[in-house]
Amino acid sequence: MPDTASLPAANATEERPRPGDSYVQSFARGLAVIRSFDARAPHQTLTEVAQRTGLTRAGARRILLTLEGLGYVSSQGRQFSLTPKILDLGFAYLSSLPLWNLAEPVMEKLVEEVKESCSAAVLDGADIVYVLRIPTHKSMSINLGIGSRLPAACTSMGRTLLAELDAASLDELIARHPLKPHTAHTITDAARWKAELARVRQQGWCLVDQELEEGLVSLSVPIRDRSGRAIAAMNISGQAARTSARHMVEQFLPRLQAASAQISHMLQMKP
User: Of the candidates 84, 113, 132, which is a domain's last residue?
Assistant: First the structure.
């Protein structure tokens, strides 16, 4: 099972570039409060929010009450939780990009052919963020959906996108986010990990066999824009007991590559 403790925490003191006078600290703190709610903490008290974000109780209280007034947070007794209105923020991103409308029918057809789940994700720092998912069988012990985040270093879509980065960027990433074992199969040696990324870069696809979670196998390829830049990755994932890594490459890779090429072509043709 993936080490959920290694997933990004919503901390107001997280180190990020802060551009002088243009940085609005109160807005950043508001986002930290929103991000503090997740599958492990869907309901929180004021004290818990303050602890998870590094804010004072007074500061956290002002933000929670503001979010409640705007309809993004609700409260019941001492417990606060997000409301469905928070989805507006994520869908604003999705609706601003034509890619996902183009990709969904192609991915649905692929799922019908291979009978395994198919997803698309983008890179956000050291994580991948799911932007589209067509599930079949439940292949992971955690629930995944749009907006879910996983560590890029040990996922097929993450490595597909990380393989596009230069050596300096990769060194900086693992310096800030050291490689951690999630299973007995996870690559944690930096040299071996970089060699794997070089192989992904050279062959144009990535297979990850039980490195994020025992029994989970995933195969990924990039989706490219008209400049050739990988703007997202898409994958097929399944259970090793049902679909071996070898079978996935032999039987699914050509179909996955064809689907990716179709989406990339449609994206490149769009004005």
Answer: 84
Residue 233 structure tokens: 């990755």
In sequence order, what are the residues at sequence separation of 6 or more whose Cβ sits closer than 8 angstroms to the Cβ of residue 191?
none
H or E stretch covering 209:
strand 206-209
CA-to-CA distance for 148 and 85, rounded, in angstroms?
Answer: 17
Alpha-carbon distance of 66 to 70, in angstroms, equals 6
Contact between 8 and 148 under an 8 Å Cβ cutoff? The reply is no
Cα separation of 109 and 44, whole Å? 40
CA 75 – CA 69 distance, rounded (Å): 11
> Is there a domain that residue 91 lies in?
no
Mean pLDDT over all residues of the chain?
87
Q: Are 150 and 94 in contact (CB under 8 A)?
A: no
Residue 35 sits in the same domain as residue 125: no
Q: What is the pLDDT of residue 21?
A: 61
pTM: 0.72
* Alpha carbon distance, N-terminus to C-terminus of the chain: 43
The answer for residues whose C-beta is within 8 angstroms of residue 101's C-beta and 6 or more apart is none
Pick the closest to residue 2 from 195, 218, 168, 146 (CA basis).
218
pLDDT digits (tens, 9 = 90+) for 88-119: 777 666 666 666 778 899 999 999 999 999 99
Joined together, the tokens standing for residue 81 give 């939780």
Distances (CA, A) of 17 to 4, 12, 31, 68: 25, 13, 16, 29
Six-digit token string for 67: 């979010």
Burial of 74 (0-12, 13-18, 19+ CB in 10 A): middle
